[in-house]
């Protein structure tokens, strides 16, 4: 129990000679510093709360209005509605001090009226989504209502510099679609997947649902939409994530990679130190709400509520349902190296440690000769185990004593850092290296990632980094923003010297990282079983990261097609060639235009996309016909994406109706069938360019390869892609190697072939239909 004794900061004893007082000055100083830091954060949160509460007005405008009220009153003029004199009636006297008080109260009333008028005006304006459907084709004109809307929104949103959460009170609620509209969209989406007989059967089920139980379920859901901030998000988090009993590893967690085209240092300790420092800077921006909210087209805000749980957050297992625990503050991280866990302080002597000081701590860990305690090396496999089994083990062996203290240290850490003993490599001539890089980040060896934490930073022994993130606390866009910010800051901060180490001279010797102590003898059988399950899970997954350099966003725009729709159509063609059939396809879109919005599903397999795919496989179809069919398919996909972003999707509405039916214990054959349909092709585009600091023209190699996730269905594919530049696309393709129908390498070849066929198709179309020379048409010579 030496660690317990070392934690005692103050003690006293009564002896025959009097009082005997002992205290540890350093520990008491840490406690005092922690208290001061906590109160500073509370004051900052209160100040930011006031600022956000009155946004888009400015707090300083109150003093201006107060000065005007004082001037009007003492100049003998009446304030609006004679407020000052009306307030004076209720004050004790009419002295100068009470007159000033009345003027201030008048100013406060007028100021609050202006604040709430501006706020709700902005909220009403943000409900308008007509701008989303405006044509973006060259030469097209924007409608007059949208132009007026843009002008007013731009003024209000730029009136005052916003904080991270300034727009939260102005964002509209997610609208609830009608059952009829959702049924029509659903039936249209499944038409290419069903033969005539099954389609007629599904149409009958949908009509029966709409005119019977659907009305009742919709009324309850309508009530929820009125009383909650977002009628989807809380149920989505609980039933899709927290109640899931499958292991988080592969099934839920996702990963992100380094900027693979640049190598800032080969020093593992230096890169780890700078990454820690930059992440702590990002945490401070969130805590102080100094991080700029993401604005679509520079004026339309996205919801920022998911950022709050980026750091100091853990998913705690439960027997039936997990829970997300977020700690307000944390002054340490936990480092995992060679199966040993270390608590590493990141805040010391009144400030956050600098990179050069953090590197000293990392070096101590890397140079340590410590060996894992019995069961410690495979301990993290418990977080990759079935959630109910992990919860039972946690309640039995980790709810008290040494294990409880150590586990709480991990769960309350800002994040977990894993120092791997192998390199994260990349070489265009050896694609298997990048595949291995991705697998190390997706699941590692099954026990060198703490899958319960909001994210684990992974550092290879060659200085390359990546992360593995838990999915409940946020969607990939938030982690992507954090990672994009880190990559560009790591480059621009110029934090490495010529030897590859961090720059700067430590002002003091930082505190030595301390080993976490465990007593795991009693739960060794559970750890062994979890390790076997985690290893099996890792071995069953295959991953292929495809680097497509033939063309990218530039050629797609030249074809006047949405890049996302372009790639989705290529995936449809590739899957049809791979599987010989169409399949229900999932694409995630965001609903963060609404308060507490997360995602909605876009269904890329449409009537139009299937018609184009069939035309591509039909030799008798002309090239012009194929081009026109592709354009129609992309337009339909773009419309579906816009509908999803505007709250008019299909699947979240059906999901919530299903939850209501379960609460009411009402059985619905239609909902049961819809919610049991497998997503054999699950896709997602990794967001890019979320921070204005990212300038690929200035730093062309400062681009992450994106990230990926495991397959959703055992007989399907998981495909994540990032359009990284004008001539670069990354695809992360995952599948179960235990399924004979799927093969990530075959699917990657099909994607390449589909993209090549589309390019050839358009090049031939451009050759057959050359555009007239505008200079000659206008009578102007070149």
TrEMBL record:
Chief location: membrane
SUPFAM superfamilies: CoA-dependent acyltransferases
Limits of the Choline/carnitine acyltransferase domain: 174-752
Topological category with respect to the lipid bilayer: Multi-pass membrane protein
Pathway: Lipid metabolism; fatty acid beta-oxidation
GO cellular component, one term: mitochondrial membrane
Molecular-function GO terms, alphabetical: carnitine O-palmitoyltransferase activity
One Gene Ontology biological process: carnitine metabolic process
UniProt family annotation: Belongs to the carnitine/choline acetyltransferase family.
Enzyme Commission number: 2.3.1.21
Compartments reported by the entry: Membrane; Mitochondrion membrane
Domain Carnitine O-palmitoyltransferase N-terminal: residue ranges: 1-46
The reaction(s) this protein catalyses: (R)-carnitine + hexadecanoyl-CoA = O-hexadecanoyl-(R)-carnitine + CoA
UniProt keyword annotation of Iron present: no
Enzyme's top EC category: transferase
Transmembrane regions listed in the UniProt entry: 55-76, 96-122, 142-159
UniProt keyword terms in alphabetical order: Acyltransferase, Fatty acid metabolism, Lipid metabolism, Membrane, Mitochondrion, Transferase, Transmembrane, Transmembrane helix, Transport
Pfam families with a match to the protein in the record: Carn_acyltransf, CPT_N
Protein name: carnitine O-palmitoyltransferase
Oxidoreductase recorded as keyword: no
Catalytic residue list: 471
